[in-house]
Design brief:
By secondary structure, this protein is an all-alpha fold.
Length: 102
């Protein structure tokens, strides 16, 4: 198991546990996990990563309509969206840096 998978599992665990119990600095942890994950995104996957981040954060609120478990699904998908947002930010910045290099 490599470091990318371990960090990904940590992010997923924080997203799931954070829906049921408060975790100090959970948003920062999710952002850092996403930034690290974005370093391994290839150039042809950047658009899919950005679209996934937008979709997860935008559509996560629609889970609130589901009785009993909707709020938990909303929190989990929103947290995974935060990871994807960090990954897309990192991937886009790496693309800008690579294009700026001579």
């Amino acid at each position: 198991m490599n470091a990318n998978k371990i960090v990904g599992w940590i992010g997923l665990a924080v997203a799931i546990v954070g829906a049921f119990a408060p975790i100090p600095f959970a948003a920062l942890i999710l952002l850092l996990v996403g930034l690290y994950a974005g370093l391994s995104v290839s150039a042809d996957q950047v658009v899919a990563t950005v679209i996934g981040a937008i979709a997860l954060t935008t559509l996560s609120g629609s889970f609130d309509a589901i009785p009993v478990v909707g709020s938990y699904l909303h929190m989990i998908s929103g947290s995974i969206g935060a990871i994807a947002a960090g990954a897309s930010l990192s991937a886009v910045l790496m693309g800008v840096i690579n294009r700026a290099k001579p």
